[in-house]
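Let us work through a complete example step by step.
Step 1: write down the sequence.
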Amino acid sequence: MKIISFIAVILCVPLMLSAQKDERPVGRLTGNFNLEAWYYFKDSVIGTEVPPEKTLMNSYANFRYDYGQFTAGIRYEGYLNTLQGFDRANDGAGIPYRYLNYKNDQVEFTVGNFYDQFGNGLILRAWEDKNIDYDNAFEGVQVKFNPANGVYLKGLYGKQRTYFELGEGIVRGIDGEINLNELFDTLSVSKSRIVLGGSFVSKFQKDENIQYNLPENVAAFAGRLSFQHGLFLLKGEYAHKINDPSADNNLIFKDGDALLVNASWSIGSFGGILGAKWVDNMSFRSDYRAVDKNLQINYLPSITQNHAYSLIAMYPYATQLTGEAGVQGELFYRLKRKTPLGGKYGTLISVGYSRINDIERKTEGLANDTLGYETDFLSVSDQLLYDDFNVKIERKFSRKFKAILMGQYLSYNKKYIEGKGGMVYAKAGVLDLSYKIKPRHTLKLEQQILVTEQDRGDWYSAMIEYTVSPHWFFSVMNQYNYGNSDKNMRVNYYTLSMGYNKSGNRIQLNFGKQREGVVCVGGVCRQVPSAYGAYLTLTSTF
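Step 2: predict the structure and record it as tokens.
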């Protein structure tokens, strides 16, 4: 009944507004639709499971209606039943996301569901990504206020989504940002731009723990700075959280801290990015009992590189909420065109490096055992969690032919990150070739190899893709675990695909096997099970 009433209000608002005018304003309806369905087969070698339903489906549709200064929207979601690898708590269908928004020159407010982010998200970020089964949207009230040029304020009050329900905790937050160049006329023409910001967030949850006297109100605050001069940009943010016992930290009463610094620059053909992050006990959820990806208030961005190639990305890094210290760097250099090294069209070379270690923890001689441990600010332990060094060369040899060559050396602490296995050392390489046979017809050959003596051993992958732009594509891909110590597990994970695109609509048919692994987006990950079957994806925008 609540949803029906909400939809009725949305539909009535334009009519009420237009009744006050001689001419009826024209509204605009936009949205998108997505569906993914699997029909599963049994494969005892790779250990696939066939659900009783045989076929599973994930789907959603967004509808947004803009009418003058008002915007209303709903999202329908249907999981009938949820695809393997996604939480079965999703099973069912409904409208868990709906909102009404009003905006003028100074004020904007939203009632219903919404997403938001304060700064880099160290103490608050609400977002969703269907690929990793993540959605921590708020339901409540959000207000944004622009009292003067260069001054931006916003606040929110609400509960967080957990599948089709809401978590118990209540989240309150305010954020402010000042752009000095917009605020002061004397700085408006300056080549340097300075932005200052700060945030405060608190959560309330009734203490029902019979063993500990847990805090019912937990606060966190953060400050940030952004400085830009020409093509140089420096951004930093520090966050502190009051003691917050939870399932993540084994109910210890230690405060948390986080520091994130990023810099980027470009000088002619040379550019780069550098980043550093230090985190200590910064898990922040609206329910202290929640685990996995559920009810996270904040977001601790990964500073490791996101790779697109499947074998290069076989061991992605998952952010450690309880503590980590890391650095990242990536340098770019474009060799000049019409030179012996640069070739006719120029050559782009990029070198990347990421390293994450654990932080130091002192557990002896604690004044209070409930603290769990002590650590020095910016401490780094000798325990390596992740290490990635990679080089990529991109070159266009002619108008028809281009190539990408990439190599990687990786260290991955699987026991620490996934809770099983040991340290994995791997070397990987990619050769990606594209040739335009004739206008709109392109043939792509992609080969990858990963060599390791740990985990499941060596892999080889090859893909051939034929594209008839802008509508059709056909591809054949196979990944072979040829280095597995168990000869019975040296399996070909093949996939046959074809797809069609037109006018915002896309349909793709696939048949084959899916290898077990991990998919990550920005340090938030989802475990992907082995699967064998036929699957369909359909997307549409309007």
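Step 3: interpret the result. Residues 401 and 435 are 5 Å apart (CA to CA).
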